[in-house]
Amino acid sequence: MLSHGLVPSALFLCVCVLYDRHKTRLVRYYGGLVSTMRNLSTISFSSTLANMSSLGTSSFIGEFPISVGAFQRNSFVATLATLGMILGAMYSLWLYNRVVSGNLKPDFLHKFSDPNGREVSIFIPFLVGGSDRPLNYQRKKKGKPM
């Protein structure tokens, strides 16, 4: 549940930084931001990976046992859920690729700057919470098996 609160919040924060800079939410106006906003691109990529429940993220710890249990209980419903996860991952990667990669569009976007110190300090808890390391550390510390 911790991951389901942190990961979407980090993605919304990335969108808010982009909206604050460019005053538009239209995806077609974005492109090539990796060349001008490297830090935000890195934060967006790690948040996108966590959104897809990739290995090494806190989302994977919750999603994988749920998926295994769902397949054991009702494979048809679990297959539909898996299809939804795959489509969601495909859309997340498409959106990230569309916004960050490609050609820069200076006709639509004028102000390019990475997140400032205040915004980076807001991102830090999301990056720490998006990793599975703090959760595993607590389990090892208490002596419980993983």
Short synopsis of the structure:
The chain is mainly α.
List the helices and strands and how they pair.
Blueprint: H1 2-22, H2 38-51, H3 58-73, H4 75-100, H5 117-129, H6 133-142
Task: Summarize the structure in words.
By secondary structure, the chain is mainly α. It has one domain. Helix content is 68%, strand content 0%. The protein has six helices and no strands. α1 runs antiparallel to α5 (117-129) and α2 packs antiparallel against α4. The longest helix has 26 residues, at 75-100. It starts with a helix and ends with a helix. The mean pLDDT is 81. Residues 1-84 form the NADH:quinone oxidoreductase/Mrp antiporter transmembrane domain. One of its GO terms (molecular function) is NADH dehydrogenase activity. It comes from Lupinus albus (White lupine). InterPro entries: NADH_UbQ_OxRdtase, ND/Mrp_TM.
Please tally the helical runs, counting DSSP H or I stretches of 4 or more residues: 6
User: Mean pLDDT across all residues, rounded?
Assistant: 81
Extended strand count: 0
Q: Report the order of strands and helices.
A: HHHHHH
Helix-strand category: mainly alpha
Instruction: Please report which band the strand proportion falls in: under 5%, 5-15%, 15-25%, 25-35%, 35-45% or over 45%.
Output: under 5%
Rg calculated over all Cα atoms: 18 Å
Q: Main beta sheet, described?
A: none
Instruction: Give start-end ranges of low-pLDDT stretches.
Output: none
Gap from first CA to last CA? 18 Å
What's the number of domains? Answer: 1
| Overall geometric form | globular
Helix fraction bin: 55-70%
